[in-house]
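Quick entry between incubations.
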Amino acid sequence: MDLKPTKPLSGFIELLPTQQRCFDFCAARMLNVLKTSGFSMLDLPAIERAEVLTDKDNWDEIETQMFLFQKGDTKMGLRYDGTVGLSRYVAGHLNDLVFPFRASQFSKRYRGERAQRGRYREFYQMDMDIMGVNSLSTNYDAEIISVIQRTLNSVSEFIGENEVRIGSRPFWDALFDYLEMNEEQKKQVFVLIDKKDKMGDADFAEGLRDALNDENKENQIKSVFINGYSDFLNKSDKLDLAISELNEFMKILELFGVKNAVIDLSIARGLAYYTGLVFEFKSLKYPELGTVAGGGRYADLAEKFSKTKIIGVGAAIGFSRIFVALMEAGAIDLSQFETPVDVAVLCMGKENLSYAVSVLNMLRDASVASVAYLDADKKFKNQIEYSDKINAKYSVIIGEDEAKNQVVTLKNMLSGEQQTVSVAEVIKLVLGA
Amino acid sequence: MDLKPTKPLSGFIELLPTQQRCFDFCAARMLNVLKTSGFSMLDLPAIERAEVLTDKDNWDEIETQMFLFQKGDTKMGLRYDGTVGLSRYVAGHLNDLVFPFRASQFSKRYRGERAQRGRYREFYQMDMDIMGVNSLSTNYDAEIISVIQRTLNSVSEFIGENEVRIGSRPFWDALFDYLEMNEEQKKQVFVLIDKKDKMGDADFAEGLRDALNDENKENQIKSVFINGYSDFLNKSDKLDLAISELNEFMKILELFGVKNAVIDLSIARGLAYYTGLVFEFKSLKYPELGTVAGGGRYADLAEKFSKTKIIGVGAAIGFSRIFVALMEAGAIDLSQFETPVDVAVLCMGKENLSYAVSVLNMLRDASVASVAYLDADKKFKNQIEYSDKINAKYSVIIGEDEAKNQVVTLKNMLSGEQQTVSVAEVIKLVLGA
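Done. Structure below.
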């Protein structure tokens, strides 16, 4: 019989135990920040109705982006982001939730598209959202940014310091109105702004020419990226409002202690969802990672699910992508995650098994991370090799003498030192370390 | 525009924040036992190649049991248990892992079948497995049972005490050989034994008659459930071996301190995988939950993936099913999970926002779980109502006087007591509690 393949499907991440321990360590640190910040963890279904996932009904087109299946008459698919499920959940539980509602999700997302380098078909994102009914102060936008920075800082030994760049949808809306652009032009130019970083100045200028064909307008838009937005004060009420909101916002970010926050009006976050301020985080140590977290404000998060207006500000951290990239770049020292246990109990001979198991039980009862080598017939050489290979800090060796005297031989696997001690002393030593 | 549905698909679990906190609390307690017991957490892809998931190639038949999709020429589907992925993973990483290898998984499983009461299409199971190459002492079977009992005991305030019933495949194999049954008869009778509990004595007897049509053989099989296995000592070497192994095993369970372990030869665990001892756990407090955990030994876990013989003993805890059943039965007092935060910072007036945010920062820096009500224009009544609704333990109220004097008014939300204190005192009070 042919053997089945042992590799996971392309685009799927599979970690070794040491890598997984590091992954879990980072996730726990980051989730702890969200807990301390009063965010409620949600764990929503990975499968949603197709109509919940998308407004499109062209099955073939959707299928190129998502994992879909049909059961009976019901079309469904795997979640591709955290926002769709959250919108449905919040709309369905308006009376069960207290607003402003802080929610976080740490879950796998699925993309049906072809796998490419650095793009996965299954990956974790860490989402955080604050939602209000009918109103929500932009102070919460500042809080979200503060919480993301705290979350990233909780693993700063790996990812370094970070910066956040703030963009403003309302500024562009106001400028487009001021420049008397039509709807088609607004859309075209916004797409150009969103892609500006990737396309270079010449292509950007050419794009503006194609869209506007008006040198004055083109120059005014270009000037935003040269002189900033200050030139546009006192041009229109809408522009003044957008600019003063942005200035005010930067002050609130300062109150929150956010570091390295800069205004960058090229931050647009694509076309979906967002209606207010938008933001993107980069690692200052590893700028080549690109955007490590991003988000913004949406005026009506759940409009497709509820007549109640739910205003939200939310963000997602690209957890899996960052983790794998840092690991591949050698930025993560995995050596500290190589030790899953403190103590390996080695048992020399079946006749001592009873005592060895009682020692293992005592260690585990005392919350000492411990395993035992229970093939008691195996030679000492095999057993100590096992202890060495799993990187146990200590070996507890049990033979005839130890069993008789109700003690153990404790071997420090790093120094090689050995001593005869009681189990209570082992526990004290390990937990005290 | 019609609104989209807000209910999750049938067969999918969706918890409210308080329920989710309890779920996460139980999971963390249980996973901590596995960590202390030296199990490596694995997080494998939820999607596998169809050929990995099943040996069947009748797509229509498989589709009634699984969630499947096709991308290009590749057929794939969602995992339905933890064992298939583990087998593939271990076979693919033989040289990266140290054996005996202790692995655990806590992940969602997917069943494509129609949803029924108490059966879900997406649910968590907690798996634990110990694997050895070419050999693995049955002492590890005892360890697995000990670890499951410890895991269940870590949430005993909800689920109560548990018992474990031990069955033996080798005993039945030996008995069938001794009774000179043919292969077809062996299979038929084993199915009957597996279903005995559900079918009742009369149907069981009738089934034996249909399969064997030999009163002596039928009676000998029935006698196992009446007199136990002791009558079958000294009948054949194979029977003696199976019986002495079982007796020996019960002694080792005792060494491990396993409570309420009984031999029950009607435990068969279906037809798949298992080749050695098998076992099932029940809650003594809630026997109506049925089997809460079960598992056994397999002689060659990864035979479809590797020529290397990997012997395993493994088990799974039906985490979601147990949790939802206990919750629905009112067995879980959720009141202790209603408080997500210790402190709600309430800010009376925009002019005090700066101080309020600095207080929030100090609390979060000190790991005090805290939120702030940042719509500073809202009335005190609204703000204190918010604090009350989210079940904050304390409100920290900040107005003009507090900001001026760099203190806060601390209100105990349970007693209603108020006092003026410094932020340092708030931290001390909350963390000291």
